[in-house]
Amino acid sequence: MIALISLFIASFLAPEVSAVIGTDFNCTSYNGTSFVYTPAAVACSNVISDSSCAVIYAAANTLYPAAGNDAQRSYACYTTATATPAALVTDMKAAAIANCPKTCGYCCQTDAYNCRNADFPRLNCATVTLSQCNSPAWRTIIAQDCPASCGFCLTGGCVDAVTNCGNDLSICRTVGMESFVNTYCQKTCNRCPSSTTFASSGTVTTTVTSTCTSYIADSSTNCAAWSRNGFCTNTFYTLAQRRARCATTCRLC
Description:
By secondary structure, the chain is mainly alpha-helical. The protein has helices spanning 2-13, 50-56, 90-99, 130-133, 139-145, 147-150, 178-184, 223-228, 239-250; strands spanning 28-30, 35-37, 195-198, 204-207. This is ShKT domain-containing protein.
């Protein structure tokens, strides 16, 4: 009886082990009950091997971050502490993002994922799936409207519609393949009409290369806003449509 009472007291006084996300809530969202990881938290790949990351960043409570769960990050991902509450150590977090972002649930803070999506996207960026990220039907639209959902932040709004263009670079110069290349391999074959860079700060900088010295006037007063949302590089609209409405803003001859 005494032993049982002692065990109860010891368990009562023992520090509580937290099984939920704490200290750093980046790459999470509140589901009405608790903070859980967003799909973008684990959408990337680790820079070093997954097995190495598992050793360096051993799971705090057997589970690793995954979309929709609230597994506590390994303390080593963000702090020198061994229990919560813990102070965030920025250098440790930076190292985790640079080497093992998926294991630590920090993909959304890598350069490829850390940018602003379009204000008025043609699809719901929060519901973009991995299959859409790799789909010829969706990739170019996602790169322009939802770059943070698929890790397209560094592509300048232009990606190959198919993922294997880089397997054979000779396709860029093959006679008879021009139409295919211009449609499906714009990034690899340097056929992007312009480039839009989404910076991590959330700003959008558009750089357009052209030989024109003058342009016809914009016919719409909305061109500046449309340009920020990707209109100038959006292949959903034809070149003629973009030129007719926003030739000056989009720098289209």
